Amino acid sequence: MNSGKEFNARAWLEIDKKKIISNFREIQKHVAPLDVMAVLKADAYGIGADFIAKLLSGHGVAAFGVVELDVAARIKDLGIPIHILGAILEEEVPIVVGEGYIAPITDIRIARLISAEAIKQGKAAPCQLKIDSGMGRVGLLLKDAFNMLDELCALPGLKIVGAYSHFPSAYQDPEFSEFQVKTFKEFIDFSKTKGLAFDFIHIANSDGIHNIASAIAPPFTMVRSGINLYGEFDIPGKRAFQIQPALCLKSRLIALKAIPKGSSVGYVRSFIAPKEMLIGTVPLGYADGVPSQIPGHGNFYIGTKKCPVVGRVSMDLTTISLEDAPEAKVGDEVLCFGQEHRISEWAQLKGCSTYEILCSLGKRIHRMLV
């Protein structure tokens, strides 16, 4: 399509609205009767939280999960509950309480701060207990959570509406994940003896939805979906239902030339032409998130033609072989990833997660809904 050219963009990320909605509905169908939280961390992994929140707001999304308060501020007018995931800073407490965001209780110190601020503002602050059942980052260790519950329940101004935890290894280590579910459920049962009736109980992320069936059944009330919304997965694993790739990274040829045998391409002359070759140049590089590991291993595409990346990826430019696309011309559209060429291919080349690839896409790449 020519939408990128209309914006004078050298590179653009096409965000397919229909596919995202379709993916969301597939997730809803699979986890019903549980609700679905759309996770919009890191500005929806760099895709644009505003776009995604507005898109899903009319399709039954139960909540949005964010980390940054500026993202929360941009989507709060949609009227859908906003859960602050992770942890909050002391100076963020007045905003979180004032806006009515659902705050994470990650330790007794932050619980006391939220309590004091809620009293100051004359509000009941909705909170969730963040339980560390195996991630080892932030949150109440299970043994501590049991012991702290009386004090937490006694703090004025706190309205404890939920509890949640997180899988570090839903696919690679299902036995440990099942242990997490078991111990977390024991905590939920214990909480009931203290008079707590949680509205939100959740542990399943995208991989958990597909691989840990016990995490999408009662007593859990919700799942958290992020990467699956875009038809992608973090790692290989069980696929409980089908989702469609909804993102395409595109650019266009900015130059092409025939080079003789023995000519070098790119910095440090890392590629030497084994014969006369037609080389195309695409105006995006590592500053835009193209992995430096892609030359010699990955491809861009012009139409249905595979164009291997050759030569070192530069800051602003990437070079490709046009041997199989000799009819190519300057201005032709280039597919970098998308459709059947999944983002996970780049992640495998780089040795990272699909999340990291998405979050590394630079600001120069125009984001556009299609």
Could you report the average pLDDT, rounded to the nearest whole number?
93
As a whole number of angstroms, the C-alpha radius of gyration is 24 Å
Flag low-confidence runs: 1-5
Question: Any guess at the CATH architecture of the largest domain?
Answer: Alpha-Beta Barrel
* Form type: elongated
What composes the largest sheet? 5 strands, parallel
Helix content: 25-40%
CATH domain class of the largest domain: Alpha Beta
Q: What is the number of helices? A: 12
Molecular structure report:
The longest helix has 20 residues, at 174-193. Helix 6 crosses helix 7 (108-121) and helix 8 (142-154) runs parallel beside helix 9. This protein is 31% helix and 23% strand. A hairpin with a 5-residue loop joins strand 13 (264-265) and strand 14. The protein has helices at residues 3-6, 17-31, 41-45, 49-56, 69-75, 93-99, 108-121, 142-154, 174-193, 206-211, 343-350, 354-359, and strands at residues 11-15, 35-39, 63-66, 82-84, 103-105, 125-132, 140-141, 158-164, 200-202, 222-225, 247-252, 255-259, 264-265, 271-272, 277-282, 299-302, 305-308, 318-321, 333-337, 366-369. Residues 1-5 have low confidence and may be disordered. It has 370 residues and is α/β, with parallel strands linked by helices. The protein has two domains: 17-230, Alpha-Beta Barrel (TIM Barrel), CATH 3.20.20; 247-369, Lyase, Ornithine Decarboxylase, Chain A, domain 1 (Beta Barrel), CATH 2.40.37. The strands form six sheets. Strands 5, 6, 7, 8 and 9 form a five-stranded parallel β-sheet that branches. Strands 19-11-1-20 form a four-stranded mixed β-sheet, with no helix packed on it. It contains twelve helices and 20 strands. The relative contact order is 0.14.
